[in-house]
């Protein structure tokens, strides 16, 4: 059924109405606003897209409020006021700074009362310093003026805070992981690439020395048997002494083999001395020891 026919039927069914009362021209219905399908949604309400702004939308004046806390504390605000107007931090004009500080504190109290408590404490300190500066200076016993400046403690705190703040800026300028740069990562198939252990040469050297140490602890001591004749060594000593009048004790053992041969050679020399065939002399303590053939009367 067309819209014109439906309107005609509704007029005919009303009480006291007839077809003759219907207008001759067809009834024109209000056109429906059609929104192009490509129009993007500017918002979503309960998951449904909103394609046009509602005509009955009312936003209270205080519904959205943005407050930017540009200062990190009372000292930060005070330092900002001093540096902005190029005041000498060692000679702070307390009247101007206190007035500007109180204006900012009044704005904070309207938004955040808990945050304003810290600033109110600093404001009280500024007013106290200003009041103490207005008082007449005290005269000491020696008629010298007391040169104590009520602003000295505040200046010291401001200078310390400024140094810490500058240091924080320098630290923040250092590149940080996941903020200024990221570490690249690459997936590698481990089954196709052999992985070698990371071995330090010093660790390998220590392991080898430990193996040698254990090998020395487990090795067996072998004793070799060697037949040596004391008589033969006695004859060798006599032949050596015949060619020289005096022979130093250490020279008799030169050219000998291992420890067993040296021991047998020494025993042979003792046997010759026992039989008075040689003489062992020493002029004084710690002097060289000499060996010679024994004197035999003709």
From TrEMBL:
This protein's UniProt keywords: Cell cycle, Cell division, Chromosome partition, Cytoplasm
Chain positions covered by the region annotation Disordered: 1-23
Domain of life: Bacteria
Biased composition (Acidic residues): 1-12
Gene3D superfamilies: 6.10.250.2410
Coiled-coil annotated spans: none
Localization: Cytoplasm
Keyword Flavoprotein: no
Keyword Lyase among record annotations: no
Major place of residence: cytoplasm
Xref: InterPro entries: ScpA (IPR003768)
Family classification: Belongs to the ScpA family.
Quaternary context: Component of a cohesin-like complex composed of ScpA, ScpB and the Smc homodimer, in which ScpA and ScpB bind to the head domain of Smc. The presence of the three proteins is required for the association of the complex with DNA.
Function: Participates in chromosomal partition during cell division. May act via the formation of a condensin-like complex containing Smc and ScpB that pull DNA away from mid-cell into both cell halves.
PANTHER family: SEGREGATION AND CONDENSATION PROTEIN A
Protein name stated in the entry: Segregation and condensation protein A
Gene: scpA
């Amino acid at each position: 059924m067309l819209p014109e026919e439906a309107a005609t039927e509704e007029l005919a069914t009303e009480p006291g109405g007839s077809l003759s009362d219907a207008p001759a021209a067809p009834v024109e219905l209000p056109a429906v606003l059609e929104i192009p399908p490509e129009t993007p949604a500017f918002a979503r309400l309960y998951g449904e897209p909103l394609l046009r702004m509602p005509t009955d939308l009312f936003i209270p004046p205080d519904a959205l409020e943005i407050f930017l806390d540009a200062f990190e504390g009372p000292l930060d605000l005070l330092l900002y006021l001093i540096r902005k107007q190029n005041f000498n931090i060692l000679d702070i004009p307390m009247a101007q700074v206190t007035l500007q500080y109180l204006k900012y504190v009044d704005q904070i109290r309207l938004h955040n009362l808990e945050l304003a408590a810290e600033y109110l404490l600093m404001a009280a300190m500024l007013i106290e310093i200003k009041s103490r500066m207005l008082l007449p200076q005290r005269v000491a016993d020696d008629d010298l003026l007391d040169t104590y400046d009520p602003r000295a403690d505040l200046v010291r705190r401001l200078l310390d805070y400024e140094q810490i703040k500058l240091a924080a800026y320098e630290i923040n300028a250092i590149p940080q992981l996941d903020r200024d740069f990221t570490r690249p990562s690459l997936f590698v198939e481990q089954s196709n690439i052999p992985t070698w252990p990371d071995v330090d040469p010093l660790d390998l050297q220590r392991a080898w020395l430990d193996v040698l140490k254990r090998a020395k602890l487990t090795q067996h001591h072998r004793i070799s048997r060697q037949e040596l004749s004391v008589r033969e060594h006695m004859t060798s000593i006599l032949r050596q002494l015949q060619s020289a009048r005096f022979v130093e004790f250490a020279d008799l053992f030169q050219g000998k083999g291992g420890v067993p041969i040296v021991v047998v050679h020494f025993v042979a020399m003792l046997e010759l001395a026992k039989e008075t065939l040689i003489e062992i002399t020493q002029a004084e303590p710690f002097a060289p020891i000499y060996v010679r053939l024994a004197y035999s009367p003709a």
